[in-house]
Amino acid sequence: MSIVEETPVFIDHTVESAPPAARRTMAATQKRLGRLPPAVARMAESPELLDGFLRSSGLFESSTLDPIAREVVVMTMATRNHCHVCVSMHTKKLHALNASPDVVAKLTDQSPLPDPTLEAIRTFTNEVLRTAGEVDDDALTAFLHAGYTHRNALEVVLGIGAYTMSTLANRMTAAPA
């Protein structure tokens, strides 16, 4: 039995070089975006991870949370996990959504947000992460009193799941922003 030495560097797959199970997803992503982001090209090494992330992030995007609230969840994950790819990409998305520069700056440096409703989802996201989902009644009540719903609480979990995959994979593969 021989041991095959492999480089520790993840490669940027093209549609042609990717494992066959990733090619359809990559082609669809490239068509939709007009380019193939390096994070997707590197995640393609595992077609299951790539599909899992894209499906779960798509489901999160269709949740009942408003777009800026969703971005607060994503940026909370991205900054917590030190994912420069997600921070860069979702900072641009927040600007496109006309989020205030103060909100973007405070999300980037993990500071309390000036908007109480957005701060409630940021705080709740951090509490879900801190407690591995075992939030206490006070944390859930505060979230609900900010205008969110039980459904939204579970949608935060969905966002955390999707962006755990992305942030950890982007860091592991050293995907460029």
Walk me through this protein's architecture.
The structure is a single chain. With 177 residues, the protein is mainly alpha-helical. Helices cover 67% and strands 0% of the residues. The protein is elongated and about 50 Å long. The model has no long low-confidence stretch (mean pLDDT 95).
Distance between the termini: 39 Å
The amount of helix comes to 55-70%
Classify the beta-strand content into a percent band: under 5%
* Global Rg: 18 Å
Q: Mean of the pLDDT scores? A: 95
Sheet of most strands:
none
Low-pLDDT sequence parts: none
Based on the structure, what is the oligomeric state of the protein chains? single chain
Number of E-type strands = 0
Structural class: mainly alpha
Order of helices and strands: HHHHHHHHH
Total count of helical runs of at least 4 residues: 9
What's the shape? elongated
Kindly list the characteristics that best describe this protein:
mainly alpha; 177 residues; 67% helix; elongated; 0% strand
